[in-house]
Amino acid sequence: MDTNVNRRKFLYTMGASSAAVAGFSASNADAAQGDAAIKVIGVSCSPRKGKTTAQALSVCLEAAKAVHPQQVNTELIELAELSIPGNLAAGIPLAPGEKDDFPAVAEKLSKPEVAAIVVGTPVYFANMSSLCKSFLDRCGMFRKDNFALSGKVGGVLAVGGARNGGQELTIQSVQAALLCQEMIVVGDGRPTAHFGATLWNNGDDDLSDDEFGLTTAKNLGRRVAEVALAHVVEVE
Known about the structure:
Elements: H1 7-22, E1 38-44, H2 52-67, E2 72-78, H3 102-109, E3 114-122, H4 130-138, H5 140-144, E4 153-160, H6 167-179, E5 184-185, E6 197-200, H7 211-232
């Protein structure tokens, strides 16, 4: 990995950090220079396709897009119905006939235009889903591949079966893995401004009544996009 830091790169980094700390607003987003768009990817780690975790991520991504519709592209990846064998992270080979869909997901996440990744997971016993753990374990390959996720913005969203059902504990657990990738980890933005998006599935697979949770999802999407855009603004 190139560790040389010239003056221009130093100013670029300091400028991006200052903008992020100050709170890069939607109006400031127009300061982003160049025609190249960034992408924000949401990864749903629920084994249930199209349910509340995916729904919450869709709300989050819509808010990210709204920060700068011409500059921000979004994509939702659902791991449900994909095979993400966690045993490969431990060097245990695939069983005969076992499928591995992780390489295709990893290829998307590592692309240079992907500036931010939001990981969404349901809450099981105050922690992430087994699918999410397998996904994060497999992401260990990025550390061997010159830290391919380094510098990307990371956010986390958790959906629990109760209003206070372990969402924040789950978010912090996922954030720990993202920090190990040298990602720029952010929480939801103001006015909620805590660890990330915390939503409540009331048992009907319907988030529409969870006004607070949906607000945190929107604030997370906005914050992720703001910091990602701030990070690409070049300081002349």
